[in-house]
């Protein structure tokens, strides 16, 4: 799977152009995109970047990719990030790496959003992967009860024998649905529960291209809105 991730990640770097503000997502597939962008910078590419997590920011700095503060940008030209599942309409489940709240902010503020996955993440219907939902620690049990009422089995994510805490200081509930037929509607329903910070459902028209990598070195580009 690593080869497939590498092909998708490296392929995405061809969309990065001089002068762009580039958003860097989080995860093992984005790792390859960041490395490739780092190589292009060595060859003279000039960009400014913002990162969706401390992990990605650290990696970018190691690759001499200039990370700028959010106060110095107005929008992002191109956002590159991975996903846990992607369907043909460009709906995504994200947040397996626990960074989906910040990732959603970056995606929302981007002119183009490129999603990079290995081919095993392409699905007919979302929902096999448990949907990550970031929730406030305050009264978390009550929030979990309302999530359950929407038809899922929510589990608070653990980090070894500790509660998993996001970079925003919150809990993550991994919500196993049987299948997600209507991502737009479900996303809205979950977001209406007080205590929910953000869902890992990236529904609607956010995605410009899904790049799926295969182990044999080929890639497939899916443009959901063309
Ligand atoms: O949403 C994410 C992190 O919050 C990642 O993009 C997603 O979990 C995919 O990760 P990977 O590329 O490691 O398979």
Automatic annotation (TrEMBL):
Which EC number applies? 5.3.1.6
Q: Which Gene3D superfamilies match?
A: 3.30.70.260, 3.40.50.1360
Q: Which reaction does it catalyse?
A: aldehydo-D-ribose 5-phosphate = D-ribulose 5-phosphate
Entry keyword set? Isomerase
The task this protein performs is described as: Catalyzes the reversible conversion of ribose-5-phosphate to ribulose 5-phosphate.
NCBIfam families for this protein? PRK00702.1, rpiA
Q: Which family does it belong to?
A: Belongs to the ribose 5-phosphate isomerase family.
Name this polypeptide is given? Ribose-5-phosphate isomerase A
């Amino acid at each position: 799977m690593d080869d497939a991730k590498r092909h998708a990640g490296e392929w995405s770097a061809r969309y990065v152009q001089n002068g762009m503000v580039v958003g860097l997502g989080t995860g093992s597939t984005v790792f390859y995109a960041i490395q490739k962008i780092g190589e292009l910078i060595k060859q003279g590419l000039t960009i400014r970047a913002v990162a969706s997590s401390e992990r990605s920011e650290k990696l970018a700095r190691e690759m001499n990719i200039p990370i700028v503060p959010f106060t110095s940008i107005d929008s992002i030209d191109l956002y590159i990030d991975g996903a846990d599942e992607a369907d043909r309409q460009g709906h995504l489940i994200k947040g397996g790496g626990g960074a989906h709240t910040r990732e959603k902010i970056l995606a929302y503020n981007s002119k183009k959003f490129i999603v990079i996955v290995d081919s095993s993440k392409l699905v007919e219907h979302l929902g096999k992967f448990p949907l990550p939902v970031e929730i406030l620690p305050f009264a978390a049990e009550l929030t979990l009860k309302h999530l359950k009422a929407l038809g899922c089995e929510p589990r608070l994510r653990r980090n070894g024998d500790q509660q998993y805490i996001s970079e925003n200081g919150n809990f993550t509930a991994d919500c196993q649905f049987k299948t997600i037929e209507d991502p737009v509607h479900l996303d809205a329903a979950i977001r209406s529960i007080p205590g929910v910070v953000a869902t890992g459902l990236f529904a609607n028209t956010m995605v410009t291209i899904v790049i799926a990598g295969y182990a044999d070195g080929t890639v497939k580009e899916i443009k959901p809105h063309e």
